[in-house]
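PROTEIN–LIGAND DATA SHEET

This sheet pairs a single protein chain with one bound small molecule, zinc ion, given as SMILES. Inputs appear in the order they were entered. The predicted three-dimensional arrangement of chain and ligand is reported afterwards as a token string under its own label.
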Amino acid sequence: MTSINDSQLRIVPLGGVGEVGKNCTLIEYDGEFVLVDIGVKFPDEEMLGIDLIIPDLSYVRENKYKFRGILITHGHEDHIGAIPYALAQLELDEVPIYGSSLALGLVRAKLEEHPGTEQKARWHTMTGGERVRLGKMEVEFIPVDHSIPDAFSLAIHTPLGIVLHTGDWKFAGLPPSSFERYRELGEEGILALLPDCVRVESPGRTLPESIVGDALESLIRDAPARIIISTFASNVNRVARAIEAAQKYGRVCALVGRSMEKNIPIARGLGYLEYPDTALVTAQAAQRMPPEKVVLILTGSQGEPTAALARMAAGTHRMVTPLPGDTVVMSASPIPGNEKLVGRIIDNLMRNGATVIYPRVLPEIHVSGHAAYDEHLELLELVRPRYVLPLHGEYRMMVKCREAAVSRGVPFENVFLTEVGQGVAITSQGGRKDGRIRSGAVFVDGLTVGEVNQVVLRDRRRLASDGLVIISVTLDAQTGLTVNETCVLTTGLPVSLSKDGENNLQEQSRDIVQKAIEQAEAGHQGGAVPRPLSELIKQNVGSYILRSTGLRPLIIPILTEI
Ligand SMILES: [Zn+2]
Ligand SMILES: [Zn+2]
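PREDICTION REPORTED AS:
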């Protein structure tokens, strides 16, 4: 029997610290744990061919007897996107999942693409203020304001104290009852605060969402011809305002793009927005209507090359072609890293003659869903935590969050800046950084999960940047000598090497292969473990090409014995 005094609370981010994306936090108390969110991260340009990055859940798999459920703060991809993969991998017959009806609805829709996962999920719809007991922990869902409806903070009550995980949050639009609840919890005493710190670098306060709805309404009213609004499909309130305004000014809307066409009807089915069937038409129908009667609501506000907006701007969309007089509204800010892609799309749209309105020229068309610096101060004053563990941010944001906490009286050493897999242990004696658990990033590529690793990625980068050399050698099985001429094929190499130089390369490679055969033979006779011939060819041809061109192409020797 462990007494309460010996019991330990562990908080281990499995993603979302030192990075933006794949949010997942493990909270363990006395041998039982829950996971808060299991999100995805999108790859950067270096990660050729990778579709998604998900957290490594090895620890959860190996300790599944301790697992009590998944708690979802809200339905954004960086919080729910990896749940289907988790269900597929966890080797559990039943996985309890707690969240708002919208978040659960969005997860459920994803499971259709992952056979065998739906039957494992046990859905528990939570509403604001509701509590659920999970072993020795009790979890309270507190409504917060964010850029998707029904987002929650979680107050996790343990015998050691309360852990307050903010989820993604801002103060503007926070229901007064939640404000009051934060205050009460602060009075009870918050052991650990886990704040989303992604926007803490911005001074001041984040504006409320309502200003965006008003701005969109005026733009829809005043647009001389067709108006095209690009935003996130998860921003249900914003889409709802656009549909409402369209109706008000005698226009119809078409939803364009996969997530828009999928998510908005799901949200409507769950009662998150209302519109008559006549408010929407298909993209084809909209293309045939008078432009001043049409509003298009499109995906692709982050510049994603395959999304509707980029394809429309490039003139390659099947159903939506640019029209003269179009007004395009980018109702989103580019996430850091996407600025170039977004900029290119704005340029393309303008080349087509569109008027483009984006946040830099009209700030009211987008507000963030995350709290700025002063809101962090306000939250800290309200809940007065003993420990702070910044989540949902790059390292510099976590540092800024620590600065805020320290300025509001939290001792410097009580703010833990952790890494993925690095836990914090809190007992009645105090809190400290704890050992690491197996964790990291798992790459999803097409239908494979975790099979693409750093080695595969390195090969892909080499292929992309330095080309490919295939060396085909036919050997006599008896003598081990080459039978006919070594054949060299190159692709993606500079002309000097692949054309005029190819003969040279053929010649050189033949010599190299010949020497490698001798070398392999000598190594064999010398009693050493022989290095495979293919290795020697790879290495020697590789260093020849590097010497003569400075390139490191991917080299594939094909040895055939006859
Ligand atoms: Zn979010
Ligand atoms: Zn988030």
